[in-house]
Design a protein that fits this description.
alpha+beta, six-stranded mixed beta sheet, 5 helices, 35% helix
């Protein structure tokens, strides 16, 4: 998708995401930082969660982060505000379920890191999760961006 087409798509998505809550049954959790709303992938704004297959020691960080996001959403409707595009042209959305900011909660509970390349919104939540040694911080997980780089550069490594 060209940058211009991606921007046009983001504009259309922003209008549809801002139109109102999406029922929980119209969404799917892809991983700890991505949901599908009305058939569109939406990355949670300002966070970087472990990939599904990221494991820290024997702790299944990616699968557990996805389960935590699913539990956080539960049966609640989701409302998202499009915030822009990531470096791959995917939509970023600041999303809420039951009034709770999903990104803030995921970072605060140690299921994700603040994605400071795009936002400083969740730096305080990450500092608190680190102080309390929660989730990815307790298990000394490699930040998701570094983990992805290492595993893409060396695909023969076991996951």
């Amino acid at each position: 998708m060209t940058r211009l087409a991606a921007i046009a798509f983001a504009t259309v998505l922003a209008a549809s995401l801002a139109a109102g809550p999406v029922p929980a049954n119209a969404q799917t959790v892809v991983d700890g930082g991505t949901i599908v709303l009305e058939g569109r992938d939406v990355r949670l704004w300002g966070i970087d969660a472990p990939d599904l297959d990221e494991v820290c020691g024997d702790w299944a960080a990616g699968r557990l982060a996805a389960a935590a996001l699913q539990k956080l959403i539960g049966n609640q409707s989701i409302v998202c505000q499009a915030r822009g595009l990531d470096h791959q042209g995917r939509i970023f959305g600041k999303c809420r379920a039951g009034g709770a900011d999903l990104g803030a909660t995921m970072v605060r509970e140690g299921w994700a890191w603040a994605l400071v390349e795009y936002s400083r919104d969740y730096v305080e939540q990450e500092a608190q999760a680190k102080t309390e040694n929660l989730g990815v911080h307790e298990h000394q997980c490699e930040p998701a961006s570094q983990w992805r780089q290492a595993h893409r550069a060396h695909p023969q490594k076991s996951r």
